[in-house]
Design a protein that fits this description.
EC 5.4.2.11, His_PPase_superfam, Rossmann fold, Phosphogly_mut1, PG/BPGM_mutase_AS, 6-stranded mixed beta sheet
Length: 252
């Protein structure tokens, strides 16, 4: 099973909180996704099915990876449960301007705490998901106006258990192209990462993260894994560590 955070988006480039806003990949993000696909193909990977969110930056990353691997014909399932964490009223705001207004410590809590969400989005805001046809199947009480990583986990883990896990049981090779926080939620579950440790985990854009699971769905730790993860990133390890640091420093 391979996890890929979408390539850099236009709002990643502008250092804005994105959440459920449906922004495009940047040119760099397109190149990152293609590079991820090339690395997977060169390493001999193949997939039977792909999963992604309903946001275009993840969908396009999925397409570009599969195109590089000549696997665009495999089934792709899109699910809102794999969407990025909803950043509430912070969506669209410049991260450094938000630090200047609210303070570095408060913004760090909103970005990286496990169970403290940002201020909620007003329902009269044009970005409220309840106004978007793709979320028409959600009841009003299910439609988020803000999320913490904990509440993101509350939707990602059931989707893993009910939908993705049966495909793993069936022996299928899977690609999951999603987002920083939905993937943090998934690896927290897979690696049983404590609440206190997950807050410091950063996942770089466009970099394939390979997981091998045993018969009990426990990750088999790779010798090149970067803690607290058991999976391994494909590519130049020093460059990957620099990308991880770049994510961490977005509000410095």
């Amino acid at each position: 099973m391979v996890l890929v955070r979408h390539g850099e988006s236009e709002w990643n480039k502008e250092n804005r909180f994105t959440g459920w806003y449906d922004v495009q990949l940047s040119e760099k993000g397109i190149a990152e996704a293609k590079e991820g696909g090339r690395l997977l193909k060169e390493a001999g990977f193949t997939f039977d099915k792909a999963y992604t969110s309903v946001l275009r930056r993840a969908i396009k990353t999925c397409w570009l990876v599969l195109e590089e691997m000549d696997l665009m014909w495999i089934p792709v399932e899109k699910a809102w449960q794999l969407n990025e964490r909803h950043y509430g009223a912070l969506q669209g705001l410049d991260k450094n301007e938000t630090v200047a207004k609210h303070g570095k410590d408060q913004v760090h809590i909103w970005r990286r705490s496990y169970d403290i969400p940002p201020p909620p989005l007003e329902k009269n805001n044009p970005h409220y998901p309840g106004n978007d046809v793709r979320y028409g199947q959600l009841l009003q009480r299910e439609t988020p106006v803000t999320e913490s990583l904990k509440t993101t986990l509350d939707r990602v883990v059931p989707f893993w258990e009910k939908v993705i896990k049966p495909d793993v049981t069936a022996g299928k090779g899977l690609l999951i192209a999603a987002h920083g926080n939905s993937l943090r939620a998934l690896v927290k579950k897979l690696d049983n990462i404590p609440d206190s440790d997950i807050t410091e985990l950063n996942i770089p854009t466009g970099t394939p993260l390979v997981y091998e699971l045993d018969s009990e769905f426990k990750p088999i730790k790779h010798k090149e894994s970067i803690g607290p993860l058991s999976g391994r990133y494909l590519g130049n390890q020093e460059a990957i560590k620099a990308r991880i640091l770049g994510v961490k420093n977005q509000t410095k």
